[in-house]
Amino acid sequence: MKKLVLVMFTALITLGLAACTNTSNVFDFILDESYDSFVTMATSADYAPYESIAEGPDGKNTVVGVDIEIAKEIARALGKNLRVIHKNFDFLVEDVRSGKVDFIIAGITPTPSRAEIIDFSKSYYTEASVEQVLLIHEDNVAQYPTIESLNQAGLRIGAQTGTIQVEFAQLFTPNATLKVISDINELMNNLNNKQIDGLFTEGPVADARINGGASFVKLILDEALDYEGNAVGVKKGNVELLNVINAVIDQLIADGQIQIWLEQYSA
Question: What integer pLDDT is reported at residue 19 of this predicted model?
Answer without folding.
Answer: 60
